[in-house]
Amino acid sequence: MIQNKRVTKAVIPAAGLGTRFLPATKAMPKEMLPVVDQPAIQYVVQEAAKAGLDDILMITGRNKRALEDHFDRVPTLEATLEAKGDLEKLQRIQEATDIGDMHYIRQGDPKGLGHAVLCAKRHVGNEPFAVLLGDDLIDARDVLLETMIDVQAKTGGSVIAVMEVDPQQISAYGCADVTAIEGEDYVAVRALVEKPNVEEAPSNLAVIGRYVLSPAVFEVLERTAPGRGGEIQLTDALQELATMEGPGGGVHAVVFRGRRYDTGDKLSYIQAVITLAAEREDLGPDLVPWLKEFVSGL
């Protein structure tokens, strides 16, 4: 029986090979690539914790041990920093170890995002849960996950995040066909289309890497056949849930209009590092003038 409880668990798929960043990711998980001075994955975990999700399951794979090590304590390092009186650095590394209750499970075979989510079934149980993809960083000053959790509590189904993109770019994303709901600031999802042709796209609303899912998704994923690329697609399961009636059925979407950084693409990753560094008080005052001077000389 599906229980409509408040969301407390987050699932973070992190088993990808990161081939777009080779050779940097040959021996280092792509999630550990630094964004200014902390790994990309830490921003994602901090976002989950900020939304009140203190039970975090990371779906990992081979060569991902560095993820577990990062969120674990290193007593000798902490003692060294404390002895040196470097309390600021000590606090920074302790932020990662005190962030929440961390759990890890290996995906094994890389069978797609849908399979990664299915790996979380035993841990999640019969309650709604959040899925956060590590490639998408949501600016900490913008609210998204909290809003999605509220919508899920109100509707009882699943909730996705979408963002308006240039219509000519929609073929690079999953696309949502939606219907407005009078009096609400979220929309109902009628259908999801994975990477449609520009001419056939039902909207310019691209699905981004945040989901709050009903546990009904597990039963659907178990019978979902491999789709694009021979992988079990989460989009296919959400498509079925969107038309399903009864407990756990229905999919809604929150349209995000804040700041999002795509660290899964080389150019966007560089832009994310520059943007976040330029906005920091300790780096921005020196970085921004240098950037202006550098660009003017090109």
Automatic annotation (TrEMBL):
Alphabetized GO MF terms: UTP:glucose-1-phosphate uridylyltransferase activity
Documented EC number(s): 2.7.7.9
Catalytic reaction equation(s): alpha-D-glucose 1-phosphate + UTP + H(+) = UDP-alpha-D-glucose + diphosphate
Gene3D superfamilies: Spore Coat Polysaccharide Biosynthesis Protein SpsA, Chain A
InterPro entries, per database record: GalU_uridylyltTrfase_bac/arc (IPR005771), NTP_transferase_dom (IPR005835), Nucleotide-diphossugar_trans (IPR029044)
Regions that span the bilayer: none
UniProt entry tagged with the keyword Transferase: yes
One Gene Ontology term from the biological process aspect of the record: UDP-alpha-D-glucose metabolic process
Pfam families attached to this UniProt entry: NTP_transferase
Keywords annotated in UniProt: Nucleotidyltransferase, Transferase
Residue ranges occupied by any Nucleotidyl transferase domain in the UniProt entry: 9-274
CDD domains cross-referenced by the UniProt entry: UGPase_prokaryotic
Presence of keyword Nucleotidyltransferase: yes
NCBIfam families: galU
Alphabetized PANTHER family for the sequence: UTP--GLUCOSE-1-PHOSPHATE URIDYLYLTRANSFERASE
Family note: Belongs to the UDPGP type 2 family.
Name of the molecule in the record: UTP--glucose-1-phosphate uridylyltransferase
Organism for this UniProt entry: Paeniglutamicibacter cryotolerans
Taxonomic lineage of the native organism: Bacteria, Bacillati, Actinomycetota, Actinomycetes, Micrococcales
